[in-house]
Amino acid sequence: MSRLDSMLRRLTAQRDGLNWAADQVTDISGDVLDMGLGNGRTYDHLREILTDRRIWVIDRVLQCHPSCVPPEADFLQGEAEPMLNRLAQNDHQVALAHYDFGFGIKEKDVAEAARLSPTIASVMVPGGIIVSGQPLVGFTELDGPVGIPPGRYLFYRA
Ligand SMILES: C[S@@+](CC[C@H](N)C(=O)[O-])C[C@H]1O[C@@H](n2cnc3c(N)ncnc32)[C@H](O)[C@@H]1O
Predict the structure, then answer these.
(1) What is the arithmetic mean of pLDDT over 93-100?
(2) Which of 11, 42, 59 to mutate to test the pocket of ligand 1 (most atoms within 8 A of CB)?
(3) Is the C or the N end of the chain the one with fewer CB within 10 Å?
(4) Structural domain boundaries of the chain?
């Protein structure tokens, strides 16, 4: 498979997974959390499909497309663990989270996702959904939407 095909499949899985997760949480109250603002693509999609939810965003840097800058009050700029702890301390519970942190080095990314999993759990509403580009631990893995090949994107219930 060409790298272009691979990238297209990953982005399609990401979008379809977020759409699926939004449907799963219609009866679960809580906020939304995008872990990894990056260019702002997934944040932009989340705010389009979940117009009535507060969307928190964590990233150590603000370097997104100018049209995708989150409101200052909802952008937690800093390292993941202290920013997740800040969210937990303020009693904000998350119904839908998207995990898209990464260095681009698979081993490091998997280790970081495992290390952060308990802290992510601390901000989730019981029954909330996590859509993730990396394997997480301590959650119930779900099949996710039809059509996404196993392992391409991952789905969990808190
Ligand atoms: C793959 S990009 C996110 C892409 C984004 N979801 C999008 O659609 O444009 C990963 C982002 O996570 C951030 N990041 C990675 N590890 C982090 C950590 N431990 N704490 C805070 N931010 C982190 C990086 O700065 C980077 O902007």
Answers:
(1) 98
(2) 59
(3) N
(4) 3-157
